[in-house]
Amino acid sequence: ENIFDRSRMAPKTPIKNEPVDLSKQKGCTPERNPITPVKLVDRPQPDPWTPTANLKILVSAASPDMRDREKKKELFRPIENSEQSDTLDSLQYDMVDDSTVDEFEKQRPSRKQKSLGLLCQKFLARYPSYPLSTEKTTISLDEVASILGVERRRIYDIVNVLESLHLVSRVAKNQYCWHGRHNLNQTLKMLQEVGELQYGELMTVFQHKEQDLDYKFGERKKETIPDSQDTLLLDLPEPDCTSASVNSRKDKSLRIMSQKFVMLFLVSKTKIVTLDVAAKILIEETQDTVDHSKFKTKVRRLYDIANVLTSLGLIKKVHVTEDRGRKPAFKWIGPVEFPGKTDEPRGHSPTSHPLPGTQRGAHSPYQICATGKQKFTRHASFNGIKPCEGTRRKVSSEPSSPSQERQDEYCSKMINLAAVCRQKIEEDNRNPNITSPLSIPPVPEDSDFCVNPLPQAVFPVVAADVPSPSLPNGISSQALHHSTPAAFKTESGKPTLLPNQPFLCFPSSSLFMLCGSLQESNLKETLPSTGDVGSRSAEAQAAIPPAACQKRSFHKCTSPSAPVDDEEPAAKKQTMEQSDVPLSLVVPKKPFESLKAESTPRNGCASAVHLEAFPLDLASPVASEAADKESAKPLDSQEQEKQSQSKDPDEPSPGKEHISKENDSQPSLPQYLYVQPTAGLSSFNFLLSANQAPGAISLAASPLPSMSVPCVVVPSAALAPFPLMCSPAVTSPLSPVPDGSFSATSSMNFSMSSLASTTPVLIGTTAVVTPKVSPMPWADPQQPALHPNPVLARSCSAVKLDSPVFMGHPVTLLKLQQPSSAPLTPKNIRPAHDEAVFKTPGSLGDHVTWKKNDGSQTRNASSVQRRLEISSTSPD
DNA sequence: CGATCCCGCCACATT
DNA sequence: AATGTGGCGGGATCG
User: Fold this and answer.
1) A280, CA 20 to 30 Å: which among A117, A656, A672, A699?
2) Nearest by Cα to A612 from A600, A625, A599, A622
């Protein structure tokens, strides 16, 4: 089925159809439509594409059992894929899958198959643990429920728990926003702190003697309880999305229970909590020990929560043999210490769970980003941040009722993490409405971050890195890999490499995507998704601090005098362009027509202005998700950003702007077209900048140094020996002319010829550089050239990482597929973009490349497979 | 038989 | 009033 779907998908995509729930689901792209309440159920019918949809419909018509089965099948498959390890389950699933309709009778899905835990895994499998970009994936409960084939009620169970950990937040009626685990540690840290206050003592007691516990409980409950609740409530509001409404609802016991439950673990020295103890503690408020029924109910709920937490890989079931006998208990296997509040995708699961979500997080690109963040945070941010934390905490400690103020404060707390701060900031910028006040405080912090790191990361690296690119053909690629990663790791994980390298080397297999320009970023935002948007950008920033730095540097270099101002106008212009962009994409058809079907769809996409959604999806599951949201961003955001910039003339604003711009711009404008190698061209991959900028050639010309590279040609795998070097070409996007794309094309061709020679090709903004050309020219950080370079470098780095690992980086694959299926949509680009700088280009390119390399495999691989791969990757 | 926990009724909250 | 949320616990299933 998957395969089937996919093949269709590609062609479909261009067509555009939001309605394709199923397809989307498979594709991994959820969100996209903020639209919420669309009922998926209806859609299936309309959508001819997904065979599955039709099946579902039919099934639904049939007996409920059938329906369930059907649903399960769908669900399970993805799960299976995602979870390689689950042999047991998988077997069962397989059974199910294989059998078609007939089967349903054979065995009604065992209860286990319907377990909340499993469902939760499925659910989590749909979203990246660490969504790269800023975007926020919106989760439609209806959609998810239908996809997973369960009643909505069950989704609530999951979402409520996730919400308690801030993995998601409720945005609107039927919609939740996916945050991923970025803030998980922070949340846990907070819970731990609160837990210490509330339950610390009790837990200690418990640990030793349960019996006494009860008594003490009762005593302390009274005292602690009130506070705890408050705190809990407070916690809830924190989430980025900040759905202001919040309180009113009766406290959702499940959420609070979940938080309390987690607190117990965090407070517990043994990290093991037995259900009964937890139940007792949780009953707290109610009455001590009174109703047995209550206790029973509580336990039931705890099971629900435990299932979700287990799926998250935070706890695992164990048995504690105590005095009388063996009691069910759960052991905390998640992160225990939350030092900086940094989120460590990898570290958090020492236990090695096969959690899909976690695994995804592990993607190389992600990791990189994460690393960067962490380091970042620790270093620069620390100074500024800590004070903030202290302040915030005080506030948080305050038992105040949950008011917005609190939220703000909480937010600020949360902000401690650089990442968090960044996100918020961006959000604010983009969505002033949402949390403008709150955001303000964090901003300065960000600026600090950005500022400090920038200088170091950006320039210093250059010299060292540069040489590597120049390396001989075969070697170069490898060398790059090594060097790049090292560079990343070096220092604070900043992406120094990127900025520095003047040229990008593409590994043989590699990629080609170049993201170019940038300022227009805002354009995308034109799409008014929902208020959520802001978060995405923030995330992206967080993820890509280095990039930001680089960008800043660029700006400075290029147009130190009036970076911000210039940009704004540029952005505007770009926005104008945006519409154009899609068209531009079309350009490179001729040679590539032969290209894969994928390419074709792209063209189609190009034609379609709003393809964005598709592209996003295509890009990478994760990215796509994020992308959707981003795309949704309203134009306003641009303005906001501008404003913010103006407000903060200093680095922060500009940096942000840059980032956002770039992000936006790329996605917004599908500047590059990736052409898969056809038979003749097989060896070469081309990226064409569709958009404007032909004029771009002149680097200096635009006040705003844009990254945009007119065209990039990447050698195919066969060419592996030949590295491509791309000097970032700068285009002046200001006057985007479709014609420009052509110019780019021409340049590409030119480069192509050079490639033929087997020597590594270097594409300079203006001219082609011979392989050995010294990077020096670009070396000057100040020169506009740098700007592009960093981008390229990033892409390279990303590529490198991915390409070598190949298998290991499922994420990439996903991205690739998406792109392939979907034409260049701005969105696609965007997501990558966020990550940054590093990933973006690389990811894109990777995708492409991989496709080529793997070709059939990747393509053929169903979405499910993709997911699986991802999951596999997650382990790191 | 106890541990789990699916299922979905039904009340309350929102729209 | 309709629909979204989610408390709650009967009772099925698992071990």
Assistant:
1) A117
2) A625
Indicate whether A751 belongs to any domain: no
Cα A99 off chain centre by: 35
> What is the tally of structural domains in chain A?
1
DSSP letters for A652-692: HHHHHHHHHHHHHHHHHS--EEEE---TGGGGEEEEEE-SS
Instruction: For strand B, list residues 68-97 of chain A whose Cβ lies within 7 Å of it.
Output: 68
Is the Cβ–Cβ distance between A361 and A349 less than 8 Å?
A: no
As a rounded value in angstroms, the CA-to-C1' distance for A112 and C12 is 12
- Distance of alpha carbon A715 from its chain centroid, rounded? 28
Which nucleotide comes closest to A319 if you measure CA to C1'? B3
> Does residue A140 lie within 7 Å of nucleic acid chain C, judged by its CB?
no
As a rounded value in angstroms, the CA-to-C1' distance for A322 and C10 is 30
Reduce the secondary structure of A606-631 to three states and give it as a string.
Answer: HHCCCCCHHHHHHHCHHHHHHHHHHH
Rounded CA–C1' distance between A173 and B14, in angstroms: 9
Reported pTM: 0.38
pLDDT for the residue numbered A816 = 29
Q: Where are the alpha helices (DSSP H) in A440-521?
A: 442-451, 453-465, 467-470, 473-489, 497-500
A307 touches strand B (CB under 7 A): yes
Q: Which residues of chain A have pLDDT under 70?
A: 1-109, 133-136, 198-252, 282-291, 322-324, 339-876
Does the C-beta of A173 come within 7 A of strand B? yes
| Longest CA–CA separation in chain A, Å | 84
- Scored b (16 or more CB within 10 A) or e, A671-681 reads bbbbbbbeeeb
Using the structure, give the distance in angstroms from the CA atom of A296 to the C1' atom of C9, rounded to a whole number: 9
* Angle (nearest 5°) at CA A700 between A465 and A562: 100
A171 falls within a domain:
yes
3-state secondary structure of A329: strand
Q: What is the three-class DSSP state of A208?
A: helix
Q: In what order do the strands lie in the sheet with A724-726?
A: A504-505, A724-726, A761-763, A768-769
Query: Any atom of strand C under 7 A from CB of A152?
Result: yes
Sign, CA torsion A274/A277/A280/A283 = negative
> CA-to-C1' distance for A116 and C13, Å?
14
Residue A220 C-beta-side C-alpha neighbours within 13 Å: 22
Q: Please state whether strand B lies within 7 Å of residue A275 at its CB atom.
A: yes
Is the CB atom of residue A304 positioned under 7 angstroms from any atom of strand B?
yes
A171 touches strand B (CB under 7 A): no
The CA–C1' separation of A403 and C8, in angstroms, is 29
3-state SS assignment for residue A137: strand
The C1' atom of B11 and the CA atom of A160 lie apart, in whole Å, by: 18
A153 touches strand C (CB under 7 A): yes
pLDDT of residue A324: 66
Q: Is residue A275 part of a domain?
A: yes
Sheet holding A272-274, edge to edge: A272-274, A326-332, A315-321
Tokens of A189: 């840290």
The answer to whether strand C lies under 7 Å from the CB of residue A112 is: yes
Beta bridge partners of A329: A274, A318
Give the span between the Cα atoms of A422 and A445, in whole angstroms. 8
Q: Cβ(A123)–Cβ(A79) under 8 Å? A: no
Q: Is residue A814 part of a domain?
A: no
A181: nearest Cα among A304, A17, A395, A344: A344
Q: How many CB atoms lie within 10 A of CB A269?
A: 11
Do A419 and A373 touch, CB atoms closer than 8 A? Answer: yes
Measuring CA to CA, which residue among A358, A350, A356, A359 is closest to residue A332?
A350
Nucleotides on strand C lying under 7 Å from protein C-beta: 4-15
Q: Is the CB of A142 under 7 A from strand C?
A: yes
Domain that holds residue A201: 116-211+250-332
pLDDT given at position A58: 40
